[in-house]
Design a protein that fits this description.
The structure is a single chain. The chain is an alpha+beta fold. 28% of the residues lie in helices and 26% in strands. It contains 3 helices and 5 strands. The longest helix has 19 residues. The radius of gyration is 16 Å and the shape is globular. The N and C termini lie far apart (41 Å). The C terminus is likely disordered.
Length: 160
């Protein structure tokens, strides 16, 4: 008799964390750091996976710097290369303004000047959710799957 197998959480292969100023400059830096880090992990700049992650980080960082901004507080970017994918976490310290949950994101009206960022996250991420954070705040976590059989360092597979 064998014991039943228990699903295991994904194993983190690599992790990158950076605190950034809650400003447009901090949001731009988050995007640039992301593509540089992905490239160092073997996900080439310009690949399908890199482009998806870059846009997700750009939108979440811009939201953190704009809507999640608390004067004097930074936001945090965390990237994790896990078995099967890339996990993106952007955390800010503003707890009272939460973005809509996946499935609740509504398209803006044609003349609205904002409101498209989470639509992009919803379209590009394989999964995403909003989590409470201690100390006060929130984290938006998004995941992008990588092609089956891809592992860090296999540059050619990242273009799928």
């Amino acid at each position: 008799m064998t014991a039943p197998t228990t699903p295991q959480p994904p194993v983190t292969v690599r992790m990158f964390t950076q605190r950034l100023s809650s400003t447009p400059r901090g949001a731009r830096l988050a995007r640039r750091l992301t593509v540089t880090q992905l490239h160092a992990w073997g996900v080439p700049h310009g690949s399908h996976v890199s482009d998806r992650v870059e846009v997700i980080v750009a939108e979440l960082a811009a939201n953190a710097a704009t809507h999640g901004r608390v004067p004097g507080r930074d936001f945090e970017l965390r990237l994790s290369l896990v078995a099967g994918g890339i996990r993106i976490e952007v955390a800010d310290t503003r707890a009272e303004l939460r973005p809509p949950a996946p499935g609740d994101v509504r398209p803006p009206r044609p003349l609205d000047e904002n409101g498209r960022g989470l639509l992009l996250v919803d379209a590009l991420a394989d999964r995403w959710r909003v989590l409470d954070r201690e100390p006060p705040g929130k984290t938006v976590l998004a995941e992008v799957d990588v092609p089956h059989g891809w592992t860090a360092g296999e540059r050619g597979c990242a273009n799928h």
